[in-house]
TrEMBL record:
Residues 476-489 have a biased composition (Acidic residues). GO terms for biological process: mRNA export from nucleus; positive regulation of DNA-templated transcription; protein import into nucleus. The lineage of its organism: Eukaryota, Fungi, Dikarya, Basidiomycota, Agaricomycotina. PANTHER family: FROUNT PROTEIN-RELATED, NUCLEAR PORE COMPLEX PROTEIN NUP85. This is Nuclear pore complex protein Nup85. One of its GO terms (cellular component) is nuclear pore outer ring. It is found in: Nucleus, Nuclear pore complex. It comes from Botryobasidium botryosum (strain FD-172 SS1). InterPro entries: Nucleoporin_Nup85 (IPR011502). Functions as a component of the nuclear pore complex (NPC). Residues 466-489 are annotated as: Disordered.
Length: 738
């Protein structure tokens, strides 16, 4: 698609030049068709899509929906059981759901990592999504369902899991050195290991200081080893009280380290005593480690700023080294202190989003997420709603969340609908689109109805392909298609099963949400598709469901057309495919035919009876078949345009050696024959001779040919009546001898 059809400067001259641009929006996806038109003719049609879903995202969206659906079911049960949103049970369930969401993102990362070619941009994006979702889970939920406990270890776990440091390469480089303390990264590496709680790696290199020539450093390294080894972690204690008591005792040991540092005689940063000169700078490293252990935020800010580790490093270490009492209520107050010293990079969308989440700024969090990743925005907003966090912000919603300031939708519904519209880009995701819309309740009923009406329900059967082939290439091509598909009945049955399941799903969704008008529209569309594929029996239930009696009548006419073009066997096969509940039960020959039926199946009665007639005749029950045919004509079920065909059927049976009907029956046939002649003379030939004319090929002489066929019937009746008048025992047929 070109960037533009006409420049903005010359758009005013478009119409005077006789040119125009026409566009049509696709009802099935976020796309439109555009065409240029002029007096000389039209240009090519170009298709434009204003949204896009990469193929690599489809599986991710589908898998994560399963978790979303489970969360909605949980919320529904909680509402029924009157369980508070912010209850321990609710928080615990949300935590598990968020873990599953994280697993889905991790699976997506694994797929991207193994993709060929490797999509680095997508991988980096989803890594940031994973980190943000992990942080959301850490701040707003917990595995125990309680959000009142200490937060430090959980934030450190988030940091270590998503921003791995120090790197393995850094450690390997130091291990290979005989005197690693001489490397400029030695103390930086140890400090970061300490901050990250990776004590074993830090102790490994601190232990090598036993070989350092400085007696003072060796003494201080012993203190460091003891303090790092004994550093209490909240996860190691069953109660918060036990942890804080142990931490106070440990902090007393840190004071001893500070005293040892203060007692050193020389502070030139070099080793003291024999052999100490030239053995590396260590005073700053020791001072920094001691400051961090003392809980000095300045020391933490200094190393994070100097090394470019950023605000996340400081946040992750804060609750372990600076303020071990840090909890979820306090973290929002700590963040401004960190950001003042270590500003975020606003060019990375995940950083502003993460800081607004930590600050409990829900409106801005959702707004940023919407602009960055709609999947994350939708599932994060839904989770905030499940946790009860959006209850206090509905009245003060930011206009940035709404498409229209007068939009009555809730924040959750607004974001979920935007995500659903994004899914609508890919027609194959129609079920997900509807499910996310359905999660908005009545807010999305209108949109759902429009999508349901336009879900692709096309199907191509072998019969339909043969019909199309015959229409375009003649019978030879149709036979070739038939030969190619020979033996594929199993595949077609499976195709129908899948198709029916899809249609049933569409109608089920309509019923679930009370979309009655959509049900009618969908059923009409389904019936049209089936009729195009000559699956008339399958189409009838949908016509009835749509209360479309005219469509049922049309199908009845088409089935009779099958008789004309394909013969009696194909006609009977098609009638047999009609579900039994839409056909009348077999009539009694003695009691006549029951003519009662609802308006939707009345037109089908004749088809069923006519097929019954052919079945009787095929079984050799000629007498019953003949009498049944007369009764059928007398019942009024036979369409006017088809009566001539029935009379021809009867004429053939009148030539049988056996007298199959009574004289009264013969005169009844004659009465119907004379009525057709009379109506034809009155100008209603088409109404009464339509079927016969089609059998004659629709030629200009079709009417006269049809009347000629009826002359055959007249002659057969005359001969039959003559036979009845001469046969012995003719009284059985209504003839008395005197």
């Amino acid at each position: 698609m070109p960037q533009r059809f006409v420049s903005r400067d010359t758009v005013g001259s478009l119409l005077p030049s006789g040119k125009s641009v026409l566009a049509a929006i696709s009802p099935r996806s976020n796309s439109l068709a555009v065409i240029t038109s002029s007096r000389e003719g039209s240009g090519p049609i170009r298709f434009v899509q204003w949204d896009d879903i990469p193929d690599s995202d489809v599986q991710f969206f589908a898998e994560s929906y399963v978790t979303f659906k489970g969360l909605q079911e949980m919320a529904f049960r909680q509402e029924e059981e009157v369980i508070p949103l912010a209850s321990t049970q609710s928080i615990e369930f949300c935590y598990r759901a968020l873990r599953l969401y994280c697993d889905h993102v991790q699976d997506q990362l694994d797929r991207l990592a193994g993709g060929t070619p490797f999509n680095e941009e997508a991988y980096v994006h989803y890594a940031a999504v994973f980190s943000t979702l992990y942080l959301f889970r850490t701040i707003y939920t917990s595995a125990s369902g309680s959000v009142d406990g200490l937060l430090g270890e959980e934030l450190l776990d988030w940091l270590n899991h998503n921003y791995v440091a120090p790197s393995t390469e850094e450690g390997v480089a130091l291990v290979e050195l005989e005197k690693p303390w001489l490397d400029k990264n030695f103390w930086t590496y140890i400090t970061r290991c300490v901050l990250r709680g990776i004590s074993q790696s830090a102790l490994r290199f601190i232990s090598q200081l036993d070989q350092h020539p400085s007696h003072a450093l060796r003494r201080l390294s012993a203190y460091l080893t003891s303090l790092i080894t004994s550093h209490p972690r909240s996860t190691e204690f069953s109660t918060e009280h036990e942890f804080l008591s142990m931490h106070r005792r440990w902090a007393a040991g840190v004071k001893q380290l500070r005293q040892e540092i203060d007692l050193l005689e020389e502070w030139d940063g070099r080793a003291t005593g024999p052999g100490g000169a030239g053995e590396g700078e260590w005073r700053e490293g020791i001072e920094l480690l001691c400051g961090i252990m003392e809980g000095k935020k300045e020391a933490l800010f200094d190393i994070c700023d100097r090394e470019g580790w950023g605000w996340r490093e400081a946040l992750g270490a804060w609750g372990v080294w600076i303020d071990v009492r840090l909890n979820r209520e306090e973290v929002s107050a700590v963040l401004p202190l960190i950001l003042e010293a270590l500003p975020l990079d606003s060019t990375n969308p995940d950083e502003p989003l993460q800081t607004t989440l930590i600050s409990y700024d829900f409106i801005n969090s959702i707004s940023i997420a919407k602009d960055w990743d709609l999947w994350l925005a939708a599932h994060m907003t839904d989770m905030l709603d499940k946790l009860g966090e959006l209850q206090n912000v509905e009245e003060s919603r930011s206009a940035s969340i709404q498409k229209d300031p007068d939009n009555p939708l809730s924040v959750r519904s607004t974001v979920l609908l935007e995500y659903a519209e994004h899914l609508h880009t890919d027609p194959s995701l129609w079920e997900l689109t509807l499910e996310y819309m359905g999660a908005c309740g009545n807010d999305a009923k209108d949109q759902m109805a429009e999508i349901l009406k336009r879900v692709s329900i096309d199907v191509e059967t072998k019969r339909g392909k043969r019909t199309a082939a015959a229409a375009t290439g003649g019978e030879a091509e149709a036979e070739m298609v038939e030969d190619e598909e020979e033996g594929g009945e199993g595949e077609e049955a499976a195709m129908w099963e899948r198709w029916s399941a899809k249609v049933d799903k569409i109608i089920s969704v309509c019923k679930d949400y009370g979309l009655n008008e959509a049900i009618v529209s969908v059923c009409k569309s389904v019936a049209q598709v089936l009729v195009r594929n000559r699956a008339y029996g399958r189409a009838i239930p949908y016509c009835v469901m749509a209360r479309d009696s005219r469509a049922v009548g049309r199908i009845a006419d088409l089935l009779l057309e099958e008789y004309i073009t394909k013969g009696a066997d194909e006609f009977c096969k098609q009638v047999a495919a009609i579900p039994p509940q839409f056909l009348p039960t077999a009539g009694s020959l003695e009691g006549g035919i029951n003519g009662t039926a609802d308006i939707f199946t009345a037109r089908l009665q004749f088809l069923s009876r006519y097929a019954d007639f052919h079945a009787m005749y095929g079984r050799g029950e000629k007498k019953d078949a003949a009498r049944f045919l007369v009764m059928l004509l007398s019942s009024g079920l036979v369409p006017r345009w088809w009566r001539g065909v029935v009379l021809l059927d009867a004429a053939g049976m009148l030539e049988d050696e056996e007298l199959l009907i009574t004289v009264d029956d013969a005169y009844e046939l004659l009465r119907h024959l004379e009525e057709i002649y009379m109506r034809a003379e009155q100008g209603s030939a088409a109404e009464y001779l339509g079927a016969l004319e089609k059998m004659m090929g629709g030629k200009p002489s079709a009417e006269s040919d049809a009347l000629g066929q009826l002359e055959v019937v007249r002659l057969a009746l005359a001969r039959y009546l003559a036979r009845c008048s001469t046969v012995s025992g003719a009284s059985e047929y209504g003839v008395d001898y005197y």
